[in-house]
Amino acid sequence: MTALQKLYEGKAKILYATADPTILLACYKDDATAFNAQKRGTIAGKGRINCTMSEHLFRKLEAAGVPTHFVDCPAPNEMHVRALTIVPLEVIVRNFAAGSLCKQTGIALGTPLDPPLIEFCYKNDEFGDPLVTEGRIYAMKLATPAQVREITELTQRINEILRDFFQQCDIILVDFKIEFGIDSGGRIVLGDEISPDTCRLWDAKETDPIARVLDKDRFRQDLGNVEGAYQRVLEKVLAN
Ligand code: CDP
């Protein structure tokens, strides 16, 4: 399927129309941003790595009965996806405390969270993707109570599947962000990507707090060897 006009360029992907109006082409970029795009850079090979890793994880989730927007990958950094109406929420799942949770609450880095914490942020760069309560979601009409219930149930299943899978890879799934959309049949479907850009991943065999980091925190915090960490995650994922 050939790419037609560019529909949207985001921080990590460009979306193109295709001849089939129900299918889009997502091209994953090497560009990296952090802190609401205040920090910018490039991670060599990231587009290919994130696309290939997302493909692998979407296939695993589909096999376990989770609906995703994934169709196929015509190239290592290109993915055909089903067109969705995006629900403007970033769903954050935390198995261990890290990042903004530690900063905002004082919970120590690495504290286990049982049950896992599921949080919603309003997907809006202008407001800096703020954390929202369920009440705010309904007041802003971002989603209905039934949709929030279904998204929460799907998210719990996705977390269980991904956590178990990463454990097999000797990787701890600390936290991650996912997004959902609604397809032409009104079904809630997992969208976006699942990659070291959107997950915190720690090497389970490494206790050093810097060496164990295999995700975008290496870029955010200038920890070095960002490409090497992304490549290692991909190799572990593809081997399992
Ligand atoms: O990363 P930061 O500390 O700003 O935010 P967080 O709320 O602690 O992030 C939780 C998880 O969601 C991390 O794995 C982030 O990489 C991911 N996330 C993301 O992919 N995109 C966002 N806009 C915000 C968080």
Gist?
With 240 residues, the protein is α+β, with helices and mostly antiparallel strands. The protein is 30% helix and 32% strand.
Characteristic terms for this protein:
6 helices, alpha+beta, binds cytidine-5'-diphosphate, five-stranded antiparallel β-sheet, SAICAR_synt/ADE2_N, 240 residues
Polypeptide structure, described:
There is one protein chain. The protein has 240 residues and is an alpha+beta fold. It contains 6 helices and 15 strands. It has helices spanning 46-63, 99-105, 134-139, 145-168, 217-220, 226-238; strands at residues 6-9, 13-17, 23-28, 31-34, 39-42, 70-75, 78-82, 85-86, 89-96, 112-122, 131-132, 171-178, 180-182, 188-190, 199-203. The strands form 4 sheets. It has a 5-stranded antiparallel sheet with strand order 1-2-3-7-6. A 5-stranded antiparallel sheet has the order 11-10-9-12-15. Strands 8-13-14 form a 3-stranded antiparallel sheet, covered by helices on one side. Strand 13 and strand 14 (188-190) form a beta hairpin. Helix 1 runs parallel beside helix 6. The longest helix has 24 residues, at 145-168. The chain is globular, with a radius of gyration of 17 Å. The protein starts with 5 loop residues before the first strand and ends with a helix. The model has no long low-confidence stretch (mean pLDDT 97). It binds cytidine-5'-diphosphate (CDP). The site of cytidine-5'-diphosphate has 14 residues, from strand 9, helix 2, strand 12 and strand 15. Belongs to the SAICAR synthetase family. This is Phosphoribosylaminoimidazole-succinocarboxamide synthase. It catalyses: 5-amino-1-(5-phospho-D-ribosyl)imidazole-4-carboxylate + L-aspartate + ATP = (2S)-2-[5-amino-1-(5-phospho-beta-D-ribosyl)imidazole-4-carboxamido]succinate + ADP + phosphate + 2 H(+). Its EC number is 6.3.2.6. It comes from Limnothrix redekei LRLZ20PSL1.
